[in-house]
Amino acid sequence: MISAETMKWRLQQGKITEFDLIFWKGTGRVVGAGDKLSLQVRGKRADYTWQRVSDTWQRLQADHALTADELGGGHDAVGLVSLFAAFVQDEVEVVAADGLLRLPGAAGRPVRPDPGALSPSSWAPLQRKIDGN
After folding, report:
1. CA 92, 93, 97, 100 torsion-angle sign
2. Alpha-carbon distance 50 to 32, whole Å?
3. Which residues lie below 8 Å from residue 64, measured CB to CB, with a gap of 6+?
4. Do the bridges between strand 100-102 and strand 93-95 make them parallel or antiparallel, or are there none, so unpaired?
5. What is the CA radius of gyration of the chain?
6. Exposure b/e, 23-33, CB count within 10 A at least 16 = b
7. Would the pLDDT of 42 be above 70?
8. For 17-44, what is the mean pLDDT?
9. Phi/psi at 6 (5° precision)
10. pLDDT confidence of 129, banded at 50, 70, 90?
């Protein structure tokens, strides 16, 4: 798995400019990768510090899974999870309807005490998020 620093370098070099969204329909775009990372997700701008990107990347690796909901469920969460999916598409299992990334080949036990918490509790609230409403 690549490091957060490698991801930052690739974004700054323009290796990924557009990516498919998971959990929502549409695509996201990288609009800036200088002192901070800026994404456009369905017409809304999301700005991230590189520290937040790195911390979230480490969280995915430690927990072996990451959802858009656990990051807040908004356009910024969907953008970041979708960007991660685009970077490691061969190493991650994507459950787009649930906004979930899983690392099936991860070694060791996840840090998360209850991995079952990633299962959606009901479909109705999630459908609104998938549609971006």
Report:
1. negative
2. 12
3. 102, 103, 106, 110, 112, 115
4. antiparallel
5. 14
6. bbeeebebeeb
7. yes
8. 92
9. -65, -40
10. low
